[in-house]
């Protein structure tokens, strides 16, 4: 489903060169729930961004569903992200001026879906995360756990095959964190392939496989 071959990522300034990822090789199979762990600054988010086509490797290549993407145009990459990938961020990235259902509909705007279809799909996604009674609320009226559930609904509204989650429980207490993990597990059981960055050993142990990074290198 996602394959990285000899991936390296280097960030350069006029005076400094930083090796963020070094010779990463990994293969995430369809239907897997994989967690990525490592100390702060080890390259976890960089790796997730490359897997999500938000950043390009300096060397090596990435395949999504069997297709190598290094020759894709920005337009083709954006289309692939919209069709196959769903993103969940630690800081939610909700728009405060929009209602919950309008926030969830956002990815569908780029598909030229009709207003009726957008509303139906958004309602369906909110029901999956247990927030059908909060559709007309605004983010400022929600708890942290509720905001993250809205973010998950937004990530799954387009029914992506792959969900990439960057510290989805990092801003939540243990009770809310477990609720979010339970939702992700149900999505995985429903067929979604999930890659989750986490600092929480207990969370990681509940996924199928753990990938550890240290100083940008995959620890075997």
Automatic annotation (TrEMBL):
<dbReference type="InterPro" id="IPR017871">
    <property type="entry name" value="ABC_transporter-like_CS"/>
</dbReference>
<keyword id="KW-0547">Nucleotide-binding</keyword>
<keyword id="KW-0378">Hydrolase</keyword>
<feature type="domain" description="ABC transporter">
    <location>
        <begin position="2"/>
        <end position="219"/>
    </location>
</feature>
<dbReference type="InterPro" id="IPR017911">
    <property type="entry name" value="MacB-like_ATP-bd"/>
</dbReference>
<keyword id="KW-1278">Translocase</keyword>
<protein>
    <submittedName>
        <fullName>ABC transporter ATP-binding protein YknY</fullName>
        <ecNumber>3.6.3.-</ecNumber>
    </submittedName>
</protein>
<dbReference type="GO" id="GO:0016787">
    <property type="term" value="F:hydrolase activity"/>
</dbReference>
<dbReference type="Pfam" id="PF00005">
    <property type="entry name" value="ABC_tran"/>
</dbReference>
<dbReference type="GO" id="GO:0005524">
    <property type="term" value="F:ATP binding"/>
</dbReference>
<dbReference type="InterPro" id="IPR003593">
    <property type="entry name" value="AAA+_ATPase"/>
</dbReference>
<keyword id="KW-0813">Transport</keyword>
<dbReference type="InterPro" id="IPR003439">
    <property type="entry name" value="ABC_transporter-like_ATP-bd"/>
</dbReference>
<comment type="similarity">
    <text>Belongs to the ABC transporter superfamily.</text>
</comment>
<keyword id="KW-0067">ATP-binding</keyword>
<dbReference type="InterPro" id="IPR027417">
    <property type="entry name" value="P-loop_NTPase"/>
</dbReference>
């Amino acid at each position: 489903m996602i394959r990285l071959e000899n991936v390296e990522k280097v960030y350069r300034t006029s005076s400094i060169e930083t090796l963020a990822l070094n010779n990463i090789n990994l293969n995430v199979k369809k239907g897997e729930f994989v967690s990525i762990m490592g100390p702060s600054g080890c390259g976890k988010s960089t790796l997730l961004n490359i897997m999500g086509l938000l950043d390009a490797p300096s060397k090596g290549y990435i395949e999504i569903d069997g297709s190598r993407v290094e020759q894709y145009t920005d337009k083709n990459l954006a289309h692939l992200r919209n069709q196959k990938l769903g993103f969940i961020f630690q800081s939610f990235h909700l728009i405060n001026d929009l209602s919950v259902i309008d926030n969830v509909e956002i990815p569908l705007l780029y598909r030229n879906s009709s207003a009726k279809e957008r509303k139906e799909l958004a309602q369906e996604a909110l029901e999956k995360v247990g927030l059908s009674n909060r559709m007309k609320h605004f983010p400022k009226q929600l708890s942290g756990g509720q905001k993250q559930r809205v973010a998950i609904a937004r990530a799954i509204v387009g029914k992506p095959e792959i969900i990439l989650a960057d510290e989805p429980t990092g801003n939540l207490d243990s009770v809310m964190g477990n609720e979010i993990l339970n939702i992700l597990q149900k999505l995985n059981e429903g067929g979604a392939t999930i890659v989750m960055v986490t600092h929480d050993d207990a969370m990681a142990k509940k996924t199928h496989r753990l990938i550890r990074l240290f100083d940008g290198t995959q620890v075997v």
